[in-house]
Amino acid sequence: MNPAFENKVALVTGAASGMGLATVRAFADAGAAVVLADFREDAVNAEAEKLRSSGKQALAVACDVSDDDQIAAMVDRTVSEFGRLDAAFNNAGVMAKVVPITESSRDEWDRVIGINLRGVWSCMKFQLRQMEKQGEGAIVNNASVGALTGNPGIAPYIASKHGVVGLTRTAALESIRKGIRVNAINPGLIDTQIARDVVSGDEDAYANFAESVPIGRAGKPEEIASAVLWLCSPGASYVVGHALTIDGGMTVG
């Protein structure tokens, strides 16, 4: 338990696996009531049931973050169930198909931007409205080290993550005088399915990629979760509009 999160309510998108699920578990272990949102309804229902069976407060919500109506309903259900919303981790995202810009399609751009960038905007829109009513709250958006560099072959993904950082900074400036802090994280190579998608599921290529990180390994989803909880805690009370890079040294050199 962490006194900072007792009687608090935390919402996580992309909560069925990876960084999202690790963060849900960390919030729940810290004492918060948690809302697990994902388009994979069966998966979040199962995870929420596990949490409830261990004595935690948990609600599963089916949500496709490319759909504004589903996002509005997600926040409404959160408040209806738990009365408030104190922390949100906007984590849902997809990898782009690996093709050069000359071969990329509008449909692919719309898919990636619709989830990775417009989805974050829409989530914040409804989250911020609730937090403004309360006069407090904290939001963390999941960007990427891809927000700091280019990467051949995944232009829509890179563009979306650059956009998340700019959106985060703007929301932070709009919200801080209302008692709400907005920040982002830039994960590097984290041991998740989306990381394997970068190398098209080639496990040898993934292992070599992980070995090339200065720390010598991929990050763990739990390491991302601990950073998200810190950014949502009173310990980060003077951190506003920051994009925290968590990459094992990938972008140091």
From TrEMBL:
Q: Which InterPro entries match?
A: KR_dom, NAD(P)-bd_dom_sf, SDR_fam
Specify the superkingdom.
Bacteria
What Pfam families does the entry give? adh_short_C2
The record's keywords, sorted A to Z, are:
NAD, Oxidoreductase
Q: Name one GO molecular function term.
A: glucose 1-dehydrogenase [NAD(P)+] activity
Q: Does the keyword Cell membrane apply?
A: no
Ranges for domain Ketoreductase: 8-188
Give the main EC class.
Answer: oxidoreductase
Enzyme Commission no: 1.1.1.47
Per the database entry, which stretches of residues form a coiled coil?
none
Known NCBIfam families for this protein?
PRK07231.1
Family, per the entry?
Belongs to the short-chain dehydrogenases/reductases (SDR) family.
Full protein name? Glucose 1-dehydrogenase
